[in-house]
Amino acid sequence: MARDLPAGALASQQAAMASADPAAIRPPSTPPGAVGLPRGGHARWVRLSHWIVAMSVLTLAVSGFVILMAHPRLYWGVAGNDLTPALFELPITRNYRHGGWEKSVAFYPQTPSPVSASRTYDIFNENSWGRSLHFLAGWFLALTGTAYLVAGIHSGHFRRHLLPGADERTGQRAWQDLVSHLQFKFAPTTGGPPYGILQKWSYAGVVFLALPLMIVTGLAMSPAITVAYPFLSGMFGGSQSARTIHFFVFAALTLFLVVHVLMVVLSGFRRQMRAMTIGT
Amino acid sequence: MKAKQIVTTRRALMTGLASAGGLLLGGCSKPLPPTYGNVLRMGDLLTYTAHRLLLPRERLAKEYAHGDITSIPAVGTTNPADSHQQAFNAENGPAYERLQAGGFTDYRLSITGRVSRPGSYSLADLKRFPARTQITKHTCEEGWSAIAEWTGVPLRNVLESAGILPSARFVNFFAFDDVADGLDMLDALHPQTILAYGMNGRDLPVPHGAPVRLRVETQVGYKSTKYVQRIVVKDEFDDLGKLGDLQNGWAWYAGI
C-alpha cells in the first residue's frame, strides 16, 4: 500500500488482508463493545436509519423524476414557464418542446409585453400520485434524517467516523485516495468505520450538504411554506432557481448512489451487507 | 353593509386546532379530508395537519412589482363552452356560451349552504365591494410558475356579506366546467384569497377563468378554481365526488 493512511486504518486493513477471521478485521482503534459501534459492523440506529433513508431516497428519486417529466424545463429566478426562456430543457417525455399552443395574445400594447397562450396539447402528467408519493417519502426522509443527525451528534459518530480529521482535509490526501480508487486499489472492507478519506468526504457531503439542501430547496418550492418563510426561496434567488438546484443535487445524489453501490460490490458485497443489516 | 357574523382569526385558529384534534380522535364530524385508507392520502393529511399546526398564520404572499409580470400559459380548461375540452359539461357549457355572448352581464355567482343570507351576485355586485389588486406568483403543480396582476373582491368580504355561520368549516367552489374544489376557513378567509374578475389591468380573459376565478396564493395553481359558478359553504368536509380533487387522485390540500 503506497497510501499514507492513518495508523489505525492501515493496521485494520493489514489485519483484514492477513486474515479472514471477522474478529481480526475489527477496527483496532475501537475497544470491543464501544458505544454505538458493535465490532465490525454498524450500530443498530445507523443500520435502521440507513435503510429508511435509502428507501425514502429511492422513492423520492423515482417520484421526483415523474414530477420532472410533467415539465422537463428548468429556469433560473422567481418564475418561469413555457412562454418564457428556459435555462435548459431535458429531452424526456412527449412534453419536450411539444409546441401545442394557440397563438399567443399580448396583455399590453407596448412591446415587449407579457403574453398568454392556451395549451392545446394533452401533456404527460402523472403528478397526482407523483407529488403525493414524493411528499410522503419526503416526510420519511426528513423525520429519519433529523433523528439520525441528533443521534450522530449525541453519540460522537459524526466526530469519530464521518468528519474528515485535521490531516485528512488536504486536497493532496483526497487526490491520492481518488487516484488509488480509480486504479481499483482499495482496502477490503472492515464492515464499517473507520472510513477512508473519500468515503468520509462523500458520506459527510451527502449527510450534511446534499440531503439537507434537497429538503430546503424542496420547501423553497412550496407556496404555503414560502408565504410563511419567504427567505427559503429568497436565498436561492427564487423558487425556480431552487427547483433547478433541486435537480442538480438530485443528479449528484444519483451519481453518489451509483458509486456507493459499486464500491459496496467491489469491496466485498456479502461482508458489507452483513454489516449494514445484521450488524456484524 | 355590516355583516352579522364576523369570522375571526380566533375561529380560524380553533378550526385548525379542531382539525388537528380530529386527526388524533377520528370520527367526530368529518373535520378533515378522508384518506380512504390510501397511504398517499395519509401523507397529504400529515402535510395538511403539519402546515396548520406549525406554520404561522395570516402571513401574506409576496407581492411583486408591475415590471415583474411574466407571460402566463392557460392550461386545463381554457374555454368551458368548447365541447372538445376534457372537463366540458354538457349543461353548463352552452349556458356559459350564452353568458359569454352577453358579456357576462347575466352572470350570477350564487352562495348557498351555511350562510344566513343565501343569494347571488352579479359581476356588478362583486365590483361594488372594495377591490383588491395583487401582483402574485402562480405556482403550477406541473413545475412552472408565472407572475400576474389579479383584481377582485376578497372572498372574506363576500362570505361575510352572505352571513357565513360560525359553524362553517369549508368553502366549496363549483365551476362551469366539470371541476369543483374547496378550501378550509384559514385559506378561504386569507386576505389575498380573492374572487378575481380582472387580470393584468383588463377583464379576466376566458382562458384564465372569466368572468370570475378564485385566487389562492397559499396553495398551488389548481386550487385557484377558474370559471366559478357557485359557492357552497359547509360545516363538514365534502370530497365533491367526481368533480373534486380526491376522487381524481389529487391531494385536496396543495400548499406544497
Task: Please tell me about this protein's structure.
The complex is a heterodimer of chains A (280) and B (256). Chain A has 280 residues and is mostly helical. Chain A has one domain (34-95, 125-277): Fumarate Reductase Cytochrome B subunit, CATH 1.20.950. Chain A contains 9 helices and 4 strands, in the order ααββββααααααα. Chain A has helices spanning 7-18, 44-70, 127-155, 157-162, 171-182, 197-219, 223-228, 231-234, 239-277; strands spanning 73-74, 88-89, 105-106, 115-118. In chain A, β3 (105-106) and β4 form a beta hairpin. In chain A, α2 (44-70) packs antiparallel against α3 (127-155), α2 runs antiparallel to α9 (239-277) and α6 (197-219) packs across α9. Chain A is elongated and about 70 Å long. The model of chain A is unreliable at 1-38 (pLDDT under 50). By secondary structure, chain B is an alpha+beta fold. Chain B has one domain (9-248): Sulfite Oxidase, Chain A, domain 2 (Alpha-Beta Complex), CATH 3.90.420. Helices cover 23% and strands 23% of the residues of chain B. Chain B contains 6 helices and 11 strands. Chain B has helices at 9-25, 39-54, 92-101, 123-128, 155-161, 185-188, and strands at 72-74, 108-113, 119-122, 132-139, 145-154, 170-175, 180-184, 194-199, 202-203, 213-215, 228-234. In chain B, the strands form 2 sheets. A 5-stranded mixed sheet of chain B has the order 3-2-11-6-7. Chain B is globular and about 45 Å long. The termini of chain B are far apart. The chains are: A mainly alpha (280), B alpha+beta (256). Chains A and B meet through α2, β4, α3, α7 and α9 of A and α2, β1 and β5 of B. β4 (115-118) of chain A pairs parallel with β1 (72-74) of chain B, so a sheet runs across the interface.
